[in-house]
Amino acid sequence: MSRSPNDTRRPLTLRDVSEASGVSEMTVSRVLRNRGDVSEATREKVLEAARTLGYVPNKIAGALASQRVNLVGVIIPSLSNLVFPEVLSGISAVLEDTGLQPVVGVTDYSPEKEERVLYEMLSWRPSGVIIAGLEHSAGSRAMLENAGVPVVEIMDVDGPGVDAVVGISHRRAGRQMAEAIVAAGYRKIGFLGTKMPEDHRARKRLEGFNEGLAQAGITLTDTEFYSGGSALLKGREMTEAMLARTPDIDFLYYSNDMIGAGGLIYCLEKGLDVPGQLGLAGFNGVELLAGLPRQLATMDACRREIGSKAAEIVAARAANPGPGGEIIELEPVIQRGDTIR
Amino acid sequence: MSRSPNDTRRPLTLRDVSEASGVSEMTVSRVLRNRGDVSEATREKVLEAARTLGYVPNKIAGALASQRVNLVGVIIPSLSNLVFPEVLSGISAVLEDTGLQPVVGVTDYSPEKEERVLYEMLSWRPSGVIIAGLEHSAGSRAMLENAGVPVVEIMDVDGPGVDAVVGISHRRAGRQMAEAIVAAGYRKIGFLGTKMPEDHRARKRLEGFNEGLAQAGITLTDTEFYSGGSALLKGREMTEAMLARTPDIDFLYYSNDMIGAGGLIYCLEKGLDVPGQLGLAGFNGVELLAGLPRQLATMDACRREIGSKAAEIVAARAANPGPGGEIIELEPVIQRGDTIR
DNA sequence: ATGAAAGCGCTAACAC
DNA sequence: GTGTTAGCGCTTTCAT
Questions:
Q1: How far apart are CA A299 and CA A315, in angstroms?
Q2: Which InterPro entries match (chains A, B) (predicted)?
């Protein structure tokens, strides 16, 4: 590949394009951003010069000068959870045609890391922030309150938000599932979930679930928690353990579909009568379930829609600032599948 | 929450901290970056002022002035592939303690989108770029060549790279799997994969697989391709279709573990004799497989290690520029599992 | 150990 | 339709 005149490795600037095209920097800038009136002739000249030089604009300088950054910070606990990539894709799809760009930060469910990631993001002065959850450290909360840009807290509506909130009520989701299970006649019910105090949404689902059971005068018969490892495998193991410990249990409520799927596979393998003798349910409505031999009962967490609504709020307010404080509660629906009788 | 003196929504600047602490902007800057000698007393004053004001530095201005950006662009085809989040976590883990930050861009396997994402990233003048694959549009390749920062192409080593390359040989991986299958005595072999011309690594695996078979005088008995939808479900459906069409087939090679897992579940459900009558193998070594009743034969794609090696190269060269052009080929290993006799 | 001046590469605002 | 000027908020460099 032959080297262009600019053979020193110095990055190209507007000035280089300006000189190469014989047009002022300002006009070059206008052409490159499609702003203001530029004659077709100059336009051509400039684009030609930019292309042959291989000029890539410096957004850092542009952002500093214009006080505008087309970035939206998206802060989520994990990428390996399957749920968050889906939220992300909802966000991306909407931002795609707004000129805004998502930038992802991952917290690993750690409030300290969330605070660091948030600080890092805000120091780039993004046009908005989308952040998972309502629970944040005092420092994070202060930063969000003072960010001076739209903030959308997603996934969860059970609690007060800093600004806009888009999500579902996990408490209610848990309650509804409890009601459905009780209505189906199950009475000895076990819960299997993650040992993660920082997963507030799973915690709220369990609280709601207990409330729902309590309403029918029932309490959980057994519980089992795990942390780390392959969720599918853990689901198997926990199910095996619980069935061994509490043989007469008649329903297993899993805090997520992956461990639920592991449990389902185990039960089918053992030839257990599902849903006759033993009912099963998970949470999330992940696509994976469609490939299993039996459809696990679950509840759609509206992941993509949460992403797209959140992105819409940010995009709308980036375009013209409003008062903020939007609250959007989505309604998850129980998918009974084949594992509740 | 009470408002601080700065009640106009103007973002805080170094100057605000400087005034609040009675110290020059320069010294404030030094304190905030831990650079140069600052007396403990001033240090305290400054930090105190910054904290109470809630000052967040403006990295845009900082980057412009210092010509240094602690960002590393990471460009991958997809987040829902399970493989890429693992690569990412390898990258993050290494960058964590280097002061560099990964910024992710997703291409959806589209060269045009890759070019746009790359352009966008380079316009932020990152300290390095990690990009999946060796195949890029002419435009992308030109940008990579002229970026003036370390570029690491990952996942694949079958072809020439722009700068550094970290990955495995998918062609060889396919060949090795073919050899193992033939050695186990299977002869009527089917391939099931994605209908994605843009997935060059899957294509190379298939090419290598065919080469491996050809060496034993065998050609593929049947093939089946899919696109979109739940991979697990597609694996089921394709397996069903192929077994119906070619009942005497004795081995199914899947282009990835998700469809392989779907196929395995289907076969077990139908009570087929795996691996006696019918052998199965996938590719990737995803964690999910551990939860299945039978272990699918597969090949570890070294995802996390690819990520960490790539990050190490970028970090090393960000610290002190070298000649570049590192080539690291990792060696995937066949995991025979329970589905090859 | 601290401060002053210059300037990073671009765009807003205003001429012409 | 095009050019000029000033300055975005920091850091570099040099002075003290």
A1: 29
A2: HTH_LacI, Lambda_DNA-bd_dom_sf, Peripla_BP/Lac1_sug-bd_dom, Peripla_BP_I
**Prediction pTM value:** 0.94
- Partners of A48 in the β-ladder: none
Verify that B159 and B202 share a domain, yes or no.
Answer: no
Q: What is A135-156 written as a DSSP string?
A: ---HHHHHHHHHS-S-EEEEEE
Between vectors from CA A311 to CA B76 and to CA A332, what angle results, nearest 5°? 100
- Tens digit of pLDDT for each residue in A225-252? 999 889 999 999 999 999 999 999 999 9
Closest CA to B222 of B257, B178, B265, B188: B188
Flag whether pLDDT at A296 surpasses 90.
yes
Q: Which residue is nearest to nucleotide D3 (CA to C1')?
A: A24
CA distance A22 to chain B (A): 23
Are A197 and A275 within one domain?
A: yes
| pLDDT recorded at residue A82 | 86
Tokens 């195949």 -> residue: B135
Instruction: Take residue A115 and report the two structure tokens written for it.
Output: 């605070």
Q: What phi, psi does A335 have (nearest 5°)?
A: -105, 110
Is A50 domain-assigned?
Answer: yes
**Smallest Cβ distance to A232: which of B56, B235, B288?**
B288
Query: In this predicted structure, what is the pLDDT of residue B6?
Result: 42
User: What's the CA gap between B109 and B129, in Å, rounded?
Assistant: 17
With contact defined as beta carbons under 8 Å apart, do B129 and B292 qualify?
no
Its domain, for residue B50, covers 1-55
Residue B341 lies in a domain: no
- Residue with minimal CA–C1' distance to D5 is A26
% of chain A residues with pLDDT over 90: 93
User: Alpha-carbon distance A103 to B126, whole Å?
Assistant: 14
Angle, nearest 10°, between helix axes B25-33 and B14-21?
A: 110
Q: Is A279 helix (H, G, I), strand (E, B) or coil?
A: strand
Cα within 13 Å of Cα(A145), Cβ side: 18
Contacting residues for B143 by C-beta, under 8 A, at least 6 apart: A54, A56, B115, B118, B119, B122
| B49 pLDDT higher than 80 | yes
Is B23 (CB) below 7 Å from strand C? yes
The identity of residue A248, as a single letter, is D
Same domain as A28, residue A9: yes
| Strand D contact residues in chain B (23-82), C-beta within 7 Å | 25-26, 29, 32-33, 35, 57-58, 61-62, 64-66, 68
Q: What's the 3-state SS for chain B?
A: CCCCCCCCCCCCCHHHHHHHHCCCHHHHHHHHHCCCCCCHHHHHHHHHHHHHHCCCCCHHHHHHHHCCCCEEEEEECCCCCCHHHHHHHHHHHHHHHHCCEEEEEECCCCHHHHHHHHHHHHCCCCCEEEEECCCCCHHHHHHHHHCCCCEEEEEECCCCCCCEEEEECHHHHHHHHHHHHHHCCCCCEEEEEECCCCCHHHHHHHHHHHHHHHHCCCCCCEEEEECCCCHHHHHHHHHHHHHHHCCCCCEEEECCHHHHHHHHHHHHHCCCCCCCCCEEECCECCHHHHHCCCCCEEEECCHHHHHHHHHHHHHHHHHCCCCCCCEEECCCCEECCCCCC
